């Protein structure tokens, strides 16, 4: 037998490539003017930088607060199983905390965000869920731009398509075989996937003991929990196999998929460990301010630098960073800006408002089996064997998503009292109210992990909130955290839906495939047997699943509300476009990274068209 090869050695042979354009010191920049400056090298930012720089005559600078995604310690980013170790409270995290959440019994909760190349796509749980067609169609309605509709944006995610023009839309996704190379027939629908793009996606590659039970439950309770062969077809409803942004046993992020290839291009500079402090006015167009200057620094007291974007600034700093930078630049609510000593350039009250997020609770049961992840975590010999297998072959449990093999999306019954009372806030009939995720072991962000025992967990998420929160500045410095209020379970509707979702999870495990497997509810949820008991459980243990959106939300050109127009250009200023999760006007009925990739791909095309760049 070969001796085990250390993880980091193997990863470096896989991920190594030219790094010429990666700069960690602003003094190394070769010029003070680029065609485009991308603020934030995260999920959307890396797509924009990569697509725009396909034309060698276009110069692009990316400025990212965090470090490289291949720096020391990045095995937590690259080894799928370690996803839960990438955040919170690591050097890859912004370490944000929310303000006290009234919907969570007044608790403040951790609010992780990726602070590294690839942004949150480098630290997330890799779920690849595009969301319902209804949500994209609503995005089109709210923005007044049919280009965002599912049928029009779909080709950006899927396949080369001419859309009736000579523009060839580049394919984003590359669906690859699972780590164990099993036959995936019947686990996904190949006709709705891309096979030639940069972003790697795959089905689970390590079977678990619960797979068959979940699958059998979709047969026995098919009315309530039907099987869906592919939740990425536009209709996510039902239970299906999880697709993840994993390929060849490693995380595929916006950094590895999009930025790494672009780093070899001479027209791209990437400045890391540097924060954009604000945008600067560079002139006026008529009476409208042009904001194509970008100021940045590596620390509060260190030197501040600036560059000019001769064509556009693209803000891709995410749902927290983007509104923060806009407000620091004088684009925001005038009264709030004035109180912090920031000169208002344009009064846009909605900057930082309207935040939506997904709240969830984990609910666990003790089980009559030792083939769960708990055993792996409790027994160092088993864990080391799994590590050795991963090191040698990039297969086994460490090559897989630690957050389960199946998930499902559900609506309340159409005659539900809750919908009658509150109306339906979703995008339409294939847009879910809640989600269930099935975990082969104890899983929680808020409860201490038991040191012994075996468990089954269902993560129960409320994905159609009506509550809205905000991001607000506390000072006039980018180096101070803003106040973050995702308003988790902040409305009666949100709380009632979560109660129904928990009851659905309890019906799921009460079905015959779980007889003899489920032993009892875990001690923390023994009182979650009544609506009131479930509400108390959620107040005690609920938290965010880390999907904030809407803090720079899109609206029609003619709307007074909103921050960006249909082409995602910031209203009432010239030269600034927002491309990230902050533009979505409603929480997406999905884990949102795939929707972020989709809007980034289309935006790159819109930018190319706007500036006459070859697409
Ligand atoms: C822990 C976690 C788990 C998640 N799990 C999933 C999942 O399994 N599936 C899924 O679909 N979604 C998941 N999400 C959500 C998803 O990852 C995000 O919605 C998506 O990646 C957001 O993309 P973005 O481009 O808007 O922002 P980000 O990817 O967060 O990028 C923003 C970038 O801007 C940088 N930045 C911010 N401010 C500044 C500044 N002033 N100067 C310079 N740079 C700045 C940040 O460091 C970051 O790199 C998860 C998120 C987290 C945090
Ligand atoms: C977050 O906390 C970790 C652990 O304390 C620390 O190493 C890291 O630098 C912090 N991140 C930021 C952005 O301050
Ligand atoms: C995979 O399984 C399907 C259905 O069982 C079968 O038709 C197909 O030939 C198999 N593919 C391979 C490559 O074995
Ligand atoms: C699932 O159902 C099939 C058919 O009834 C049965 O053979 C199999 O044992 C069941 N699997 C589990 C894990 O319950
Ligand atoms: C699991 O339980 C079986 C039966 O009790 C036992 O033989 C086996 O050693 C256990 N495995 C582990 C890894 O604990
Ligand atoms: C369950 O309710 C009982 C009675 O109110 C209480 O004493 C106990 O602490 C509760 N247990 C948990 C885990 O919340």
Automatic annotation (TrEMBL):
It catalyses: a pyranoside + acceptor = a pyranosid-3-ulose + reduced acceptor; a pyranoside + acceptor = a pyranosid-3,4-diulose + reduced acceptor; pyranose + acceptor = pyranos-2-ulose + reduced acceptor; pyranose + acceptor = pyranos-3-ulose + reduced acceptor. Keywords: FAD, Flavoprotein, Secreted, Signal. The active site is at residues 547, 591. Residues 114-137, 318-332 form the Glucose-methanol-choline oxidoreductase N-terminal domain. FAD binds at residues 116, 276, 592-593. Residues 1-20 form the signal peptide. GO terms for cellular component: extracellular region. PROSITE patterns: GMC_OXRED_1, GMC_OXRED_2. It holds the Pfam family GMC_oxred_N. Its cofactor is FAD. Its EC number is 1.1.99.29. The keyword NAD does not apply. The keyword Flavoprotein applies. InterPro entries: FAD/NAD-bd_sf, GMC_OxRdtase, GMC_OxRdtase_N, GMC_OxRtase_C. GO terms for molecular function: flavin adenine dinucleotide binding; pyranose dehydrogenase (acceptor) activity. It is found in: Secreted. Belongs to the GMC oxidoreductase family. Catalyzes the single-oxidation or sequential double oxidation reaction of carbohydrates primarily at carbon-2 and/or carbon-3 with the concomitant reduction of the flavin. Accepts only a narrow range of electron acceptors such as substituted benzoquinones and complexed metal ions and reacts extremely slowly with O(2) as acceptor. Monomer. This is pyranose dehydrogenase (acceptor). The lineage of its organism: Eukaryota, Fungi, Dikarya, Basidiomycota, Agaricomycotina.
